[in-house]
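Appendix B. Raw example, untouched.
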Amino acid sequence: MNHRVLLLIILAALFAAGPAAAQCAYPEPVTSESCAAAAAYNASTNGATFLVWVNGQLVCEDYPFPGSPTDFHEIWSGTKSFWGVIAGIAIEEGRIGLDEIVADTITEWQTDPWKSMITVRHLLNLTDGLQADAAGGSAPTYAEAIAMPALHEPGTVWEYGAVPYQCFGEFLRRKLLGEFADPLAYLEDRILNRIGAPYSEWSRGTDGYPWLPQGSRWLGSQWIKYGELVLRGGYWPPTGDRIVSQHLMDQAFQRTPLNTDYGLTWWLAPDGGTGYPCDTVVARGLGTQLLYVIRSRKTVILRQTTQVWHGWNYSDTVLLDLLFAEDDPQDHCPPAPASGLAVERSGDDLLFTWDPVNDDISGSTELLNGHELWKAASPDFTDGALHLSLGGPLPQGLAAGQATANPDLVFYKVRAFDKCGNVGE
């Protein structure tokens, strides 16, 4: 069989008429009445700060007593959610890889049968298998964290705790030696300073290094800027800067198989659950310190409290139901067409690449769940079949062994699907 010719057809250019524009025509998500109802609920559940931005504009603001716009608050585990995004920047800069073996850098782990298997992804999605918390529940020092025992084989158990984040702190610290004093200095330089979002205070351990799982304190008006950066897919409109590539940042919002409500340092809308827009991602801290990002509604919502043990009567779904004026504020807008499909032979394999799909068909920032690669013998794809289903936002896929299995002429197309099940063309 002759395999000289592979013809790549880009569906977006040749076949897609495109969904009706009405699919993407949404009303304003927040009205003055819905803002007032949600603010009242926030106040009734011990909220101290309540802010809502829609498309970069402040549309809802309330500081119930004893709250004030000049008060900063501990966001507790909301601090964790900085590190999934900074990991995307470190990947883009070639410093780390998500599936990199951590023991290549934390060499003390190399002789341990389970620790030697831990990847960066394991640390950030909490499937590393390490003892998750130190005695007393506070963040251990970096040295104490990396000395914690492995209780399970990596990738077999999901367990929430401070230790994996402190281990990531030591891993990143070693990667940054000679350039940055610590991971917080890197976060400030690469994100916080560039979007004009200074924190008020940040706790450090007895080793002098910043805590990664908790310990940062923020004005609501500053923390919400970070949510807006996530909403915009890593782009910052006030300066026109691309802070991080969207497809690298958005790896933080892919479900962890062992806990599908969690990504890489971010909480996600419950898999198959109701009451949340399906593309909701959340930075969540003790006492209901919350930063919600919902791209399909161009909305960022912030709640802070002062009495961390008095927020248990609060419900995400009640607040969101009150805030959004629509009865069912779900995303029905498909991703934009994929373009730039190309293929490269690597031995017996085919490596497919295409341009990142960052937006939906209306031009708003999209939150992808994955891609489909279709294959056919005819250019109209009447005989087309799904060739590969690829999870995540990365614009690439490998067809193992397919370089020796293709006829003379093969047609391929790729399309993206989002968190809400909408499929592009």
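End of appendix B.
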